Amino acid sequence: MSIRTGAGRPGWMVGSIVALALAGAAGTIGFGDWMKPPEARPVPVRGAPAIRGSMVADLAAPPFVPAPIARSYATEMVVNLEVIEKEMEIADGTRYGFWTFGGTVPGSFIRVREGDRVVFNLSNASDSEVPHNIDLHAVTGPGGGAAASITLPGQRSSFEFAALNPGLYVYHCAMPGAVGTHIANGMYGLILVEPREGLPRVDREFYLMQGDFYTAGGFGEKGLQKFDFAKAVKEDPEYVVFNGRVGSLAADRALQVEQGGTVRLFVGNGGPNLSSSFHVIGEVFDNVYREAGTVATHNVQTTMIPAGGAAIVEFRVEVAGDFHFVDHAIFRATQKGALGTIRVAGAEEISLFRGESGPMDH
Ligand SMILES: [Cu+2]
Fold this sequence. Notes:
Structural class: mainly beta
Number of strands: 21
Number of helices: 4
Bound molecules: copper (II) ion
């Protein structure tokens, strides 16, 4: 079908023809949909349910997450999160002035239930040098809360939202005029809005988040490194890492799981610039909730996680050994730090895999 837009044709008429053509082609708008209950409509009508009681959210530092939610009703969930500017190592012997939500990169993991009314209290530590705020992608509301949460050093702000859509969402600082710099300094994390019916039980859940960092000195240069704005604009990072530093989840900090168990990874990408080609070497993802949406796809090797996006991946670890996860844009893994390890404890299972580790295998 082609639509010609003749000169002089009124704009509204062209618009109507396009709208009708799109509706007809996609077949998504039908009168009958309005007769269905709200949740059966292609675009659901969402509203806040009745709220019962109030509680303070348990937050968790990466790579861990708060326990699954057992509640069968919506409640008022009070989230208290503090912004802390602090120097930490980005690699052995290399320090960086991070800006954090809760003292870690990524920030504290927040877990609420679909329908909860979230009372979000953001404080900014008194020794901070600049104001900060927060935009949670789980929020339905202007700026994701950003304008309502601009907080000066030593102050606190508060806003409220209804967690309408289930899913895993990125949150980040969004200070007007300086969003990129704040995110580049590590100001991001994940909030899980658990669906009303909960998530299927697994043996272990972990929290990973990729980020790209722009230091004045080259990769591995020692000492305190300054943020390099020009490199950030060019999207040319010195570091691409999981959980804020080279080796955050490697060697004796590897994620520990038991052979035969099921693993769920909540994987986010703070960016600020790069998309992640997330891959676990020697594993196939049994389930991937791509872009952290609701529908799972299966038997996936590598999943794409955009900057400011997330994915939930699940798999069973049938074979013991070390399984490295990477950004499969592979020079980021081998030269810039995008590498971590899942260590599966157990016994050899030769019906599934048999082979010796050679001298080059490390
Ligand atoms: Cu900030």
